[in-house]
From TrEMBL:
Start and end residues of each Band domain: 54-211
Pfam families linked: Band_7 (PF01145)
Record-linked CDD domains: SPFH_alloslipin
Name by which UniProt lists this protein: Band 7 domain-containing protein
Lineage: superkingdom: Eukaryota
One of the record's GO cellular component terms: plasma membrane
Assigned protein family: Belongs to the band 7/mec-2 family.
InterPro entries: Band-7_stomatin-like, Band_7, Band_7/SPFH_dom_sf, Stomatin_HflK_fam
Length: 313
C-alpha cells in the first residue's frame, strides 16, 4: 500500500528573494522618461484586449527570477507572478533544480599506457543564481570542460586495474576537484557518475585472462587448504583408532562379520593372551628349517614364557 507523505514547508524551494535597490544611480531625464513610459505602457498592457506588452511575468517553481533595471541587477524574486517595467527592466529566469549533463565519451590514457574510453555524467545545482547568471558566460559548458579535464588527469594517474576496481573513488575525487572551482560560479556539485568504461578488444581479452588466472589460483589455494584439513582430521582419526578401546571395538565388529558365515568356526582368544603371544614372537628370531619353511625359534625360555602366559589366562 502506497502512503502519501504530506509536504512540509522546509522541503520546498528556499527563498531567494532579495531587493538590493537601485541606489543613487540616476539616468537623468531620459531615464525618468523611460521609467514613466514603461509604467504607462504596462498599465495599459495589463488589460487583455490591449496590444501593449503585458508587464507581468511568470516564474515557475524550481526557478528564480533576476530583475535588472537599465542592465543593472537590483533584485531577485521567488516563483510566482512578477511585475516588471516593460521599458527599463528585464527578467532573467535561472533554474535552481538539480540538473544532469552528460560529460561525453572521451579517450583517456592510463598510467600504464592503456587507452580507455570513459562515459560519465555530472549532477549539479545552482545555489547562487547571481553568480551563475552574471559570473560566467556558459555555465553548463564550463562545467563539462572542467569535468573532462579533471577526468583525464585523475584517470591518467592510475593503472588500468585501479580504474576498473575503483570507479566510485575516481568519481568522488573528480567531484571534489570540480566542486572547488564550481563553488566560485555559484554551483554545488551533487556528484559525478562514471557510466561505462570501454576497452579495446586486446585489453578486454588481457583483463579477462588475468581474472581467470586469479580465479584458478584461488581455487588451488582452497583445494590445498582442504587437503591440509583432511590430512589433519585423518591423523586425529588414526590416533583415536589406535587406542585399546577402539581396537576392541574393531575386533568385535570383525567377529560379528565372521559369525555371519555358516561354514566358519570362530575361536575366541582373550586379548591378554594375544598380546603376550605377540610379544614372545617379536622377541625371538625367525629361522628356516630343512624344508625351506620359516618358523620362530622360541627356545626353552620362550616356550616357558608362552606356557606361563597361557596358564595365567
Amino acid at each position: 500500500m502506497i502512503q502519501v507523505q504530506p509536504l512540509k514547508r522546509s522541503e520546498m524551494q528556499p527563498s531567494y528573494a532579495q531587493d538590493l535597490g537601485t541606489g543613487e544611480v540616476t539616468h537623468g531625464i531620459y531615464g525618468s522618461l523611460l521609467q514613466g513610459l514603461g509604467c504607462a505602457v504596462g498599465f495599459l498592457g495589463a488589460f487583455p484586449c490591449c496590444p501593449c506588452p503585458n508587464p507581468f511575468r511568470n516564474v515557475q517553481q524550481g526557478s528564480v527570477g533576476l530583475v535588472s533595471r537599465f542592465g543593472q541587477f537590483y533584485k531577485s524574486v521567488d516563483p510566482g507572478l512578477v511585475q516588471v517595467n516593460v521599458c527599463t527592466e528585464s527578467l532573467r529566469v535561472v533554474d535552481v533544480k538539480i540538473q544532469i549533463s552528460p560529460i561525453g565519451r572521451q579517450m583517456v590514457i592510463t598510467r600504464d599506457n592503456v587507452n580507455v574510453e570513459i562515459d560519465s555524467v555530472i549532477y549539479f545545482q545552482i545555489c547562487n543564481p547571481y553568480r551563475a547568471a552574471f559570473g560566467i558566460t556558459d555555465l553548463r559548458q564550463a562545467l563539462i570542460e572542467r569535468a573532462q579535464t579533471t577526468l583525464r588527469h585523475v584517470v591518467g594517474a592510475r593503472a588500468v586495474q585501479s580504474v576498473v576496481t575503483e570507479r566510485e573513488a575516481i568519481a568522488f575525487e573528480i567531484a571534489e576537484i570540480v566542486g572547488d572551482v564550481a563553488d566560485k560560479w555559484g554551483v554545488a556539485i551533487e556528484g559525478i557518475l562514471i557510466k561505462d568504461i570501454i576497452f579495446s578488444p586486446e585489453v578486454s581479452a588481457s583483463l579477462s585472462s588475468a581474472a581467470q588466472q586469479k580465479r584458478i589460483g584461488e581455487s588451488k589455494v582452497i583445494a590445498a587448504r582442504a587437503e591440509v584439513d583432511s590430512a589433519r582430521l585423518m591423523r586425529q582419526a588414526a590416533d583415536i583408532l589406535a587406542s585399546p578401546a577402539a581396537m576392541q571395538i574393531r575386533q568385535l565388529e570383525a567377529l560379528q562379520q565372521m559369525a555371519k558365515s555358516a561354514n566358519s568356526k570362530v575361536v575366541f582368544v582373550p586379548m591378554q593372551l594375544q598380546s603376550d603371544v605377540s610379544s614372545q614372537l617379536v622377541n625371538h628370531p625367525v629361522v628356516q628349517n630343512e624344508s625351506g619353511n620359516e618358523s620362530v625359534n622360541l627356545g626353552a625360555t620362550g616356550r616357558v614364557g608362552l606356557l606361563n602366559a597361557v596358564s595365567d589366562v
